[in-house]
């Protein structure tokens, strides 16, 4: 799916939030930042400081006086807001919205998500441009997210839904230990423990050796790790020995 | 699933980020904020300003000098970091981690996620306490997230994963070991090995202790198993001693 996503900040107040929004966009490979009527004018030095790796996104941000110019070229616009609205418009949780895109695709090449000001969110007159209202479901008591964190969560979900190449699974490297090494390690340990009197009696020895073996065998130990353990147990075993 | 989640900020620098972390925790109904060694001391007025609806979370935050005290009562700890590590430890994308929890449940009642400082993230010596490293997959060019935005994404995913109804019963038995037991075991082992001369020199000691810790921490050890290991190592250490 190749879909361009624009992030649209409507009347944002704090430069820090604008900067942090540009940074998270860079993290998730979104480049199209649009800012409508920023309270403190433009450019904004606090936004620059917070942008970090997002400085290019910030420098390329487009500034608008009116929201309708900012959304003009898009095919679909969503409104991200915490407050329920008395509006006859689909109101969908973000997780459901993402599932829907995964199941059914998205019927646009160029979409945008609007976010309102820190003080009061999106106004109804702004939401009219939205196809749907997207809600980041939260605890009922505290539904209002910080602007930059809301942008972060939206970018994160869109990235994984629209952009991410097949999950970059980076499981740890395969173990290179052979069972023979594991067995040598366990049997040496058993013999040494036996010599110290650790097992107390033969009955307990069987059970305790089982328990100890389980601890190590179910773990994916590399050859190097087994050698480290052999060395560590040896050092203890030989300590104080003449 | 009823799982308590602690958010652990290790050596955070900016009050603004600490405040924004507390706010997003309140949004997603998490209450357990732990802060290790905040650069600018405590309390922090900038954190208070940014906390908004998270002020209660912030006021109840626990402050620690040492990370190991901050994780002592937890059963499982994860490290959230962007940088790949030369460590033999599972490194998993957040989406995969969440899928795994959804499919298999989680084998702990009380977990924590650690985040490092803004300047350099988590150190290897901090990551040793983690069962897995969680990576918020991003665009390859810009992998480093703002701290408060990283916390936001983790809280968002955990909220939806741990609070939405999940039919499957965890396939893992609940582990009853606390991190404090694990840490006691590891530190005793380190001291005893040190005494035997196992580490040879200080440089190697750091790396080898890291390796040994990783072997045990990533494993799901029960309290009983840890006690068995303590006993086994003790028996070897004291062998031949007068």
Task: Please explain how this structure is put together.
The structure is a homodimer of 242-residue chains. Chain A contains 10 helices and 7 strands. Chain A has 242 residues and is α/β, with parallel strands linked by helices. Chain A has a 7-stranded parallel sheet. In chain A, strand 1 (4-10), helix 1 (15-27) and strand 2 (32-36) form a beta-alpha-beta unit. Chain A is elongated, with a radius of gyration of 29 Å. Residues 166-175 of chain A have low confidence and may be disordered. At the A-B interface, helix 1, helix 7, helix 8, helix 9 and helix 10 of A face helix 1, strand 5, helix 7, helix 8 and helix 9 of B.
SSE topology:
Two copies of one chain form a homodimer.
Chain A: E1 4-10, H1 15-27, E2 32-36, H2 45-51, H3 55-59, E3 62-64, H4 67-70, E4 76-80, E5 90-93, H5 94-104, E6 110-115, H6 124-127, E7 132-135, H7 147-163, H8 179-196, H9 202-217, H10 223-238
Parallel strand pairs in A: 1-2, 1-6, 2-3, 4-6, 4-7, 5-7
């Amino acid at each position: 799916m190749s879909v361009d996503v624009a992030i649209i900040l409507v009347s944002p107040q704090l430069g820090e939030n604008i900067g942090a929004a540009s940074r998270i966009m860079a993290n998730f490979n979104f480049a199209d930042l649009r800012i409508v009527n920023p309270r403190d004018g433009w450019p904004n030095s606090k936004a620059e400081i917070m942008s970090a790796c997002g400085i290019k996104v910030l420098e390329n941000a487009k500034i608008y006086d009116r929201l309708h110019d900012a959304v003009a070229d898009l095919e679909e616009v969503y409104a991200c807001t915490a407050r329920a609205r008395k509006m006859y418009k689909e109101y969908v949780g973000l997780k459901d919205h993402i599932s829907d895109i995964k199941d059914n695709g998205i019927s646009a090449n160029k979409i945008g998500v609007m976010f309102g000001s820190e003080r009061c969110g999106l106004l109804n007159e702004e939401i009219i441009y939205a196809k749907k209202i997207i809600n980041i479901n939260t605890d009922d008591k505290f539904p209002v997210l910080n602007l930059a964190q809301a942008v972060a969560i939206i970018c994160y979900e869109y990235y994984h839904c629209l952009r991410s190449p097949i999950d970059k699974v980076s499981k740890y490297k395969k173990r290179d230990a052979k069972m023979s090494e594991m067995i040598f390690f366990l049997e040496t340990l058993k013999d040494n423990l036996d010599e110290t009197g650790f097992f107390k009696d033969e009955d307990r020895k069987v059970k305790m050796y089982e328990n100890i073996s389980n601890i190590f065998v179910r773990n994916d130990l590399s050859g190097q790790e087994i050698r480290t353990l052999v060395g560590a147990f040896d050092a203890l075993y030989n300590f104080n020995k003449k």
